[in-house]
Amino acid sequence: MSCLHDHSCEDHNCSADWSLHTHIDLSKVSALNEAVAGSVKSVFKPWNRRLDTSEGFLESNDGDPELLVFIPFTSDVKIKSISVVGGSGGTSPSKMRAFINRDGIDFSDAQNMQPVQEWDLNENLQGLLEYQTRYSRFQGVGNLTLHFPDNFGGDTTQIYYIGLKGEATQLKRDVVATIVYEITPNPSDHKTRADAGSLAHVE
Amino acid sequence: MVLEATMICIDNSEWMRNGDYAPSRFQAQADAINLICGAKTQSNPENTVGVLTMAGNGVRVLVTPTSDLGKILSCIHGLVVGGEANLTAAIQVAQLALKHRQNKRQQQRIIVFAGSPIKYDNKTLEAIGRKLKKNSVALDVVNFGESDDGKPEKLEALITAVNNNDSSHIVHVPAGQNALSDVLISTPIVTGDGDEGSGFVAAASVAAAGGGGLSGFDFGVDPNVDPELALALRISMEEERARQEAAAKRAAEQAAEQEKVRELASGSRDDTMAEPVSNSTLMVDDKGHNLTSQDDEAALLEQALAMSMDVAKSGTAPVVDTDMSDATVDDQELAYALQMSVQDSARDMSSQSEMSKVLEDQSFVSSILNSLPGVDPNDPSLKDLLASLQGESEPQQKQKEDKPEEDHDD
């Protein structure tokens, strides 16, 4: 399920479409099996800089083409399509599997679990290919995990750019963290306006 | 203060009965584990530590990663030595235990105590290492106990395969005088990566090494334990530093003049006079943590201060000396120089001693003022007050005092 742009990119502002990267929580982006720790952050940038490798790129360890990228967002997003720019010489990833709203996936989890959606990728050196998602499954995404199990035969897998197209809602899917639970209820902690004026109270 | 979940793999195989580490290998291991658990939980309260045994009836997890130190220590308590250690299975089980940690934000670390001989080949170990690296698990290895051929190399190969950005370490501990835990205290296995130096480690290292290894705090005293002592040490250190800085500036000023006197005079007296000055500059460079040696140097420093002050004041005196030496014999010039300096010092000593006392007090006062929260030492009214305290001191000296004050500004 891939499509090429059917218009010339000078007329249409493609950059504006691929704007979900601004909603990514870059400090919490992480990757497993990356050769240089932290290099995964350089992969998320504006669309017009997608071929720019001056800040580095994501590369897997030698001899092991698997990569796992964890992308948390600052608010819930709806993802319409994904674009991946890989390296040349067989280092582009050949498959992509996506998981939604799951924390702390590692390789054994990723290999055993059923992904929300998976794609066969083509080599996309110019970044013009995009892969559409089953939109109904990608509503309310708090974090996205992308697993690239294989590449086109290279020693390592190189990824220069990951683009996300879609919309951001302003909602945040938050984990319940600050609730105080009572072991026994104490009515004086739960005064209602009706009680405030009454004479009786329980100590 | 990195947030970490650690799994410790204990070797409780038959080889641990040996007594070459006092009291027995197993007991030394248990002490080392106590130390590591304490250090980890102290460095970050959210750190968790778990323990598993590698030998016995098989690999068994004694306690899953928890931050409860008592639970960890109590489960080491009843362990029995026996069986053969299974390193590969132990590492895999440790990895699994870490994978199911409650707080997914913790970094994963495995610490292995490798006391028994290793029967695996390099290839297997490297494969394990790569798998750990792929899942970003760090590995620390303590190589002790049996040292058959190839064991250190195998473990080094394992660490090289796991190592990502120097987060994995290996320590070889030979049998001997030092206890296992004493050797481990100074290694990054206990102190952690970077400049963590937790208070626990600093205090423990002071106790163990007798004040030698000050990794955490300035004076080997934990401010949490003894705040008054730490404060008193800090104030006296600052006072000493201010004095040394003032002396260094004066010494540097008249160092050039002293040079002339020194190279022309062959007498030993001048050399000894010059030495306190050079000593003081040396001491300034070596702003050591040794407060006791300052007492010995203090007398010399006083002398140097007096010497340098009278040289600064009467700047023409050494120039006159050098002129004289051209014309006269060395001994005579030496005697004349001695006479002049003795006269000057006799004259100025009385006023100097008072002034030096005031100076000391003033630097002490300024350091006290700096440590007070609400006082701004750059306040002009405060500066006037301090200037009046100094009395008839030259504006030059006041400048020097201001500089140490500003240096103390935090």
TrEMBL record, chain A:
Pfam families: PITH. Residues 9-184 form the PITH domain. GO terms for cellular component: cytoplasm. SUPFAM superfamilies: Galactose-binding domain-like. InterPro entries: Galactose-bd-like_sf (IPR008979), PITH1-like (IPR045099), PITH_dom (IPR010400), PITH_dom_sf (IPR037047). Belongs to the PITHD1 family. This is PITH domain-containing protein. The lineage of its organism: Eukaryota, Viridiplantae, Streptophyta, Embryophyta, Tracheophyta.
From TrEMBL, chain B:
GO terms for cellular component: cytosol; nucleus; proteasome regulatory particle, base subcomplex. Residues 5-189 form the VWFA domain. GO terms for molecular function: polyubiquitin modification-dependent protein binding. GO terms for biological process: proteasome-mediated ubiquitin-dependent protein catabolic process. Keywords: Proteasome, Repeat. PROSITE patterns: UIM, VWFA. Residues 249-288, 369-410 are annotated as: Disordered. Residues 249-272, 395-410 have a biased composition (Basic and acidic residues). SUPFAM superfamilies: vWA-like (SSF53300). Belongs to the proteasome subunit S5A family. PANTHER family: 26S PROTEASOME NON-ATPASE REGULATORY SUBUNIT 4 (PTHR10223). This is 26S proteasome non-ATPase regulatory subunit 4 homolog. It comes from Musa acuminata subsp. malaccensis.
